[in-house]
TrEMBL record:
It comes from Accipiter nisus (Eurasian sparrowhawk). Gene3D superfamilies: Ankyrin repeat-containing domain, Arf GTPase activating protein, Arfaptin homology (AH) domain/BAR domain, Pleckstrin-homology domain (PH domain)/Phosphotyrosine-binding domain (PTB). The keyword Cell membrane applies. The BAR domain mediates homodimerization, it can neither bind membrane nor impart curvature, but instead requires the neighboring PH domain to achieve these functions. Residues 403-525 form the Arf-GAP domain. This is Arf-GAP with coiled-coil, ANK repeat and PH domain-containing protein. InterPro entries: ACAP1/2/3-like, AH/BAR_dom_sf, Ankyrin_rpt, Ankyrin_rpt-contain_sf, ARFGAP/RecO, ArfGAP_dom, ArfGAP_dom_sf, BAR_dom.
Length: 819
């Protein structure tokens, strides 16, 4: 190994030694600068390489996204996937190269600079320091006088020690210089060699990778040549097709038939017809909007945009009719009427309107010829039909559970098959008759008119709880015993599921409209139908003797308690307006809630108010001509409904909550709004209120009962329900359009009666209904259902009245607890 600085010269400390040191120190300084610069350039190269890899990876991800987008083209997807995988491997190789560069150049050279050159610098500092001390010792030794022996000895000793230390440190410094000069060669070459091997490995891996891809690339190039030929051929074909269609369109402009392109009954895609129509909105403004309509899968649907989900106008075309509309200002209009709504449409021309009407009619006929649509088959698979008949107790248990309307109604005896033709698993119902029907019979029922039969789907429509209970109170067996009582006598054969539609239609019309199979009542009692007086005066007097005497006596004592009742109820009425009214509203959401009492400071007033209310309610009941139930049942007016007029039978059955008898009375021709002049001109609906049955009221309303007919005292069903505290009936009548502003002969409307009776629930319902009515009038929303919160509250009351009526009997519970 060649020595840069001679050790012998180091001991002599000659000018050659000092010159050599100066040369070496300058060289090391320049070496340090070069190495620092190289390390910084290496760091910059690595950072740039990583940025390149990041950008390359983003580019590769873009290729993969393009491959996924081209999933329908197998060639493009496969090629781009292979190329992106190859580029990903190259990115991995680049990352390996940068890691090797960082270890070989950056890390290794930085270690050499920070360790070896730093040791050289430390040795240089020590050498310079001891060299300076040596020079000082020589100068001091030369200046001492010979006659000062002790100073001579001291200077000599210092010079000797300093020379010894200098030789030691100088030798170490020379050694460090020689080692550094020798090591730097190895460190620099070693790091660069490692760096070059890393590149060699990188390019070898890239070469091997692309060598494997090369056959595929050559094959793809050959396919691209063929693709270019095919593309040129496709271009010529498309240009020819373009020219043909352009000529056809030009001929179409001069043709008088503008429907051939749009009307195609035998289309392969199942779309009978499609095209643009104007649709009139169902809002208050009745605006017209252009939409893309189509008839497909026995449904009429439309779309605003192609990407939107189709909106179904008619679920099943078998249930709708189509007709021209000439009574509006717009031309070319026609109307599609379904069971639940109607849709007004406008075509662009008269021929297009005729084509659409013909398409709808053809689809209706085609649907009837089919065995069943796809949606009905899927419903049968998802919800198995209930073939077994269950007892009444099992039915009530099911009503408490969460079954669908279909499952609940089909559990009733006889409802597992169509009431008129016997087809299994019926999906439709007549809500005013309380029977289940197949889809074909339901269409016939709908053609009879709503005054005979109101049809509703058990799967597509929403069902209110009172309607479900009504369906469960009747059923096919009950109705058929009434409407088919003389079927065997007259010798008519009941249609079967496979019978012709005309045969079913004739039978259903004879059964429900002409009522040919109903067992008629004797003619001798038909005079009672007029509602004339049926009890002699003596019997009327007997009726008021006995138990009624105590009630009449109570009227005499009522006047003395009236002042107390009014004064004590004032405090309670004040609390009804706020906040008890709101408390009563929200207390239904807590199953354990009871009637909230007034604060402890008002306990005395509350107690007196409750005691007085009992007398007040008794007084109101007496003044309303409400008779004890036992006396009513003993009255000769209600003796054996089978021998009474149909109207009187309906009147009596409504009070007794007997829906089969009510249905029989209607079948015998009873007027649903029959008036009993002997009972203050009360109607069956008023009697149903007095009987306390919500389902009975719903049955009469569904069969056309007028909710606003009043008795001689000016009280309608809503008045009577308010007086009796029947919250569920009040909710039902308000939903059915009862007039809550009507006043009786005393000038009281239902709200004032409820306030006097201190019934917070009914006050809340009446006030909410009045508030909703005022809001609709102020906003001009006539005929609209009202606010969503209002509908939710009434829906909750309906649910409780049908499923948990005990929650609405809080006043009665409170009174019984006090007694």
């Amino acid at each position: 190994m060649k020595v840069t600085v001679d050790f012998e010269e180091c001991l002599k400390d000659s000018p050659r030694f000092r010159a050599a040191l100066e040369e070496v120190e300058g060289d090391v300084t320049e070496l340090e600068l070069k190495l620092d610069k190289l390390v910084k350039l290496c760091i910059a190269m690595i950072d740039t390489g990583k940025a390149f890899c990041t950008a390359n990876k983003q580019f590769m991800n873009g290729i993969r996204d393009l491959a996924q987008y081209s999933c329908k083209d197998a060639l493009v997807e496969t090629s781009l996937t292979k190329f992106s995988d190859t580029l990903q491997e190259m990115i991995n190789y680049h990352n390996i190269l940068f890691d090797q560069t960082q270890r070989s150049i950056k890390a290794q050279l930085q270690t050499f600079v920070k360790e070896d050159i730093r040791k050289f610098k430390d040795a240089k500092k020590q050498f310079e320091k001891v060299s300076e001390e040596k020079e000082n010792a020589l100068v001091k030794n030369a200046q001492v006088q010979r006659n000062k022996q002790h100073e001579v000895e001291e200077a000599t000793n210092i010079l000797t020690a300093t020379r010894k230390c200098f030789r030691h440190i100088a030798l170490d410094y020379v050694l460090q210089i020689n080692v550094l000069q020798s090591k730097r060669r190895a460190e620099i070459l070693k790091s660069m060699l490692s760096f070059m091997y890393a590149h060699l490995a990188f390019f070898h891996q890239g070469y091997d990778l692309f060598s494997e891809l090369e056959p595929y690339m050559k094959d793809l190039g050959a396919q691209l040549d063929q693709l270019a030929v095919d593309a040129a051929k496709e271009k010529r074909d498309m240009e020819q097709k373009h020219s043909t269609i352009q000529q056809k369109a030009a001929l179409q402009d001069y043709s008088s038939d503008d429907t051939k392109l749009e009307y195609n009954v035998d289309a392969a895609n199942g779309i009978v017809m499609e095209g643009y129509l104007f649709k009139r909105a169902s809002n208050a403004f009745k605006t017209w909007n252009r939409r893309w309509f189509s008839i497909q899968n026995n449904q009429l649907v439309y779309q605003k945009k192609f990407k939107d989900n189709p909106t179904v106008v008619v679920e099943d075309l078998r249930l709708c009719t189509v007709k021209h509309c000439e009574d509006i200002e717009r031309r070319f209009c026609f109307e599609v009427v379904s069971p639940t709504k109607s849709c007004m449409l406008q075509a662009d021309s008269e021929k297009l309107r005729q084509a659409w009407i013909k398409a709808v009619q053809t689809s209706i006929a085609t649907a009837y010829r089919e065995k069943g649509d796809e949606s009905e088959k899927q419903e049968k698979k998802s919800s198995p039909s209930t073939g077994s008949l269950e007892s009444g107790s099992e039915t009530k248990e099911k009503l408490l559970k969460g079954e669908s309307a279909l499952q609940r109604v089909q559990c009733i005896p006889g409802n597992a098959a169509c009431c008129d033709c016997g087809l299994a698993d019926p999906r439709w119902a007549s809500i005013n008759l309380g029977i289940t029907l197949c889809i074909e019979c339901s269409g016939i029922h709908r053609s009879l008119g709503v005054h005979f039969s109101k049809v509703r789907s058990l799967t597509l429509d929403s069902w209110e709880p009172e309607l479900l209970k009504l369906m469960c109170e009747l059923g096919n067996d009950v109705i058929n015993r009434i409407y088919e009582a003389k079927l065997e006598k007259v010798g008519v054969k009941k249609p079967q599921p496979g019978s012709q539609r005309q045969e079913k239609e004739a039978y259903i019309r004879a059964k429900y409209v002409e009522r040919k199979f109903v067992e008629r009542q004797p003619v001798s009692v038909s005079l009672l139908e007029s509602g004339t007086k049926v009890l002699p005066q003596s019997q009327e007097e007997k009726r008021h003797s006995g138990p009624e005497k105590s009630l009449l006596a109570g009227e005499q004592g009522a006047a003395s308690l009236k002042a107390v009742a009014v004064s004590s109820d004032e405090a309670r009425r004040e609390s009804l307006f706020c906040p008890d009214e709101l408390d009563s509203l929200f207390s239904y959401f807590d199953t354990s809630s009871k009637l909230r009492s007034i604060r402890s400071s008002d306990s005395g007033i509350q107690q007196s108010a409750d005691d007085s209310r009992e007398h007040l309610v008794s007084t109101i009941s007496a003044n309303s001509l409400y008779e004890p139930e036992g006396d009513k049942q003993e009255s000769s007016v209600f003796c054996d409904s089978k021998q009474s007029s149909p109207g009187l039978q309906l009147y009596r059955a409504a009070f007794e909550k007997n829906l089969p008898d009510m249905a029989e009375a209607l079948a015998h021709g009873a007027e649903v709004n029959w008036v009993n002049v002997e009972e203050n001109k009360a109607t069956p609906l008023i009697q149903a209120v007095r009987g306390g049955s919500l389902v009975t009221c719903e049955f009469l309303l569904q069969n056309g009962a007028n909710v606003n007919i009043r008795d001689m005292k000016g009280r309608g069903p809503l008045h009577h329900a308010t007086v009796l505290g029947h919250t569920g009936q009040v909710c039902l009548f308000l939903k059915r359009g009862a007039n809550q502003h009507a006043t009786d002969e005393d000038g009281k409307d239902p709200l004032s009666i409820a306030v006097e009776a201190a019934n917070a629930d009914i006050v809340t319902l009446l006030r909410l209904a009045r508030m909703n009515e005022e809001m609709r009038e102020s906003e001009g929303l006539y005929g609209q259902p009202g606010d969503e919160i209002y509908q939710d509250i009434f829906r909750d009351f309906s649910q409780m009245a049908s499923n948990n009526p005990e929650k609405l009997n809080r006043f009665q519970q409170s009174d019984s607890q006090k007694s």
